[in-house]
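Build the 3D complex.
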Amino acid sequence: MSQLETAATTPAAQGAELSIPQLIADMGRRARAAAALLTAAAPAAKNEALERAATLFEARREDIRRENAKDLASGRQRGLSDAMLDRLELTDARIQAMATALREVAALPDPVGELSHVRVRPNGLRLGKMRAPIGVVGIIYESRPNVTADAGALCLKSGNAVILRGGSEALHSNKVLAALMAEATGAAGLPQDAIQLVPTTDRAAVGELLRADKFVDIIIPRGGKSLIQRIMDESRIPVIKHLDGNCSVYVDEFADLAMAETILVNSKTHRYGVCNAAETLLVHEAVAGDFLPRAVAALAAKGVEIRGCARTRAIVPQGVVEATEEDWGEEYLAPIIAARIVDSFDDAVAFINHYGSHHTDVIVSKDYGRITAFTRRIDSACVHVNCSSRFSDGGEYGLGAEIGISTDKLHARGPMGLEELTTSKWVALGEGQIR
Amino acid sequence: MSQLETAATTPAAQGAELSIPQLIADMGRRARAAAALLTAAAPAAKNEALERAATLFEARREDIRRENAKDLASGRQRGLSDAMLDRLELTDARIQAMATALREVAALPDPVGELSHVRVRPNGLRLGKMRAPIGVVGIIYESRPNVTADAGALCLKSGNAVILRGGSEALHSNKVLAALMAEATGAAGLPQDAIQLVPTTDRAAVGELLRADKFVDIIIPRGGKSLIQRIMDESRIPVIKHLDGNCSVYVDEFADLAMAETILVNSKTHRYGVCNAAETLLVHEAVAGDFLPRAVAALAAKGVEIRGCARTRAIVPQGVVEATEEDWGEEYLAPIIAARIVDSFDDAVAFINHYGSHHTDVIVSKDYGRITAFTRRIDSACVHVNCSSRFSDGGEYGLGAEIGISTDKLHARGPMGLEELTTSKWVALGEGQIR
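Done.
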């Protein structure tokens, strides 16, 4: 390690009580220094760190549960809901699942150093685009402590240093998990500072982190809309957003209606609280009379409330309540769906691009031209043809673990896995070429 | 075209005098509507538009020169320097060069619809990532009117609508060029609003454009540091920055010193005012005694001023002035270079990552391990081995035309061509699959 790098890893006031700006600057400097070493780390060393972390999670299960119990106790005292407490709890099974997830990330192909766009220029210069770590990633998240392990693992594997800022209700759990991961990273011969957790619940630390553009290259928020909105408003660092999924299923006039029913029911009812659940049903008017009665019956049998346009209600007066303008843009995350008849394929496309959230949209059709036009014209991260909206997921797409589903268009769009946690650099190999 | 799209293309107050916010909102709505049509435009139609624009440039050369003469006259009146006036002037040769550039963009492969990451999942789902236009691109630039043609062409070819905001001194020239391109686009059956120019020199229009996050997906600034800084501070839209190039040439202890001299001289002196010119020379101490005297002599013969560290000056007392701390971070864009001896390879890497601008950095070495480590550890958009820094350029890399060289790490890094003006969407083709 060079003098410059050594200097960077020495904290200004180790052990002393730091102010929030000092704390974040110190963490940022350490993260930068760690990133400089991680960028050329051997894949085997990164995998060893992840394997060691998995083993530590298993070996120190009691420590993890003891720290988690502190969070649960203070959560009960603060009156967290049963659902919140359940999300917070680290059972033996969940600790085991975190260890397994770490081993799965270790088993994924290493993205760093991968070459693309390889070419030889007329002057003999050999060129290619090489995947490289981004540098320092800031992750701001709520609630579930397993994000600490998952996000830490994905960042380490992709060669990035990470600064984690979890929810205050999970501070003790997050601290012990991050500490074990840092310990494992050090034991594998990599910089411990590769994985750091902001060790305070002070909300000022979030603002400070969002201003630390000298130290942090990208912010990835995971949480509710208000958290993401705050981050977008305050951040001086590029943010990859994971916003809502107002996903549509469009049943074309050339659809197989039995397939359409199966896909609609699965897209809506497989899980309600997820961003890739269907929230809107669009039906071409040519098949509305045939399709809507069976679709409404199938959804109603699952306990789904249907909010329809006037024409939908004219066809199925029973069991369809009146939709308002708000319904077309709503992400219910609940057993509710908005239903609307469209005059044409073009109207379906325009409706989805206007009211949808550009996450995942489905067409059910047998017509080649319609399918081709839908995939080209729908402006969404995931465009699905004759299959459930529920497949838009890093695991289902075969990307391995994901850090979220980006609803942004730049840098990363859709499920965000290891590749999306990297940037690239052009590498030119010459033998003395000049211009 | 659907009702929703038709509505969007009807300006609120066509012909009436619009306020700046109304003007930008109207342009934004038109751009969005154009983008919705462009996204599925046939490659042949886009190419026809570019060919027609090239022909129009040639046929209307007199119109272009007349409008350009207005800019030149008011530029002289406002006391623009001769260099500025020269940059502004559209000679017959330059108009011909713009037409040729349009035809070259037409001849490039169309990036839209290209598939990558193609796979078949165990359930039979066929998946791939499809390149798609970003949507609406905002380009804010200074001076040279040819940017109007180049940027407009690259955006159109990549399926994006573009809102151009050029420098006030080139308003008449930019207006006629943008109008001819819009005319050609309409004649090819594509929306005229695909290429729009902000038709006012009011600076408030820039601020309004930077806040138009509902209509504009990405801002690309081209110009001086103060312009880019203002845009970064004000923009609510993601910005791809094109900042300075403080590029280094590192001469390793295992360098071929004759090759090192050739590469150094070319990197520094081939052109001075460009972002990929070398601004810093680093020499490993083991070869400093051999290399520095010949390097200084070769640079001095070209009229380059050398600002060296104390050790450099000890070796070559004549002709090397004392460097200050500021010199290590300076982008001279002039016949000046900073020179420094480093103790080790690690120090060279740390120095470049600390003081450089992460644009283009060069190693000259015969050692395989050093070269490998340099390409991995240097955190720059372009890492060159044994060749001039001057090759970091879209044309030299074989990407065709470029819209700039991004010094950002996210979305696009290095020369930014057609591919970097696109995003992607996942397309899943199923036969009824559900979860």
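Chain B touches chain A through 78 residues (CB under 8 Å).
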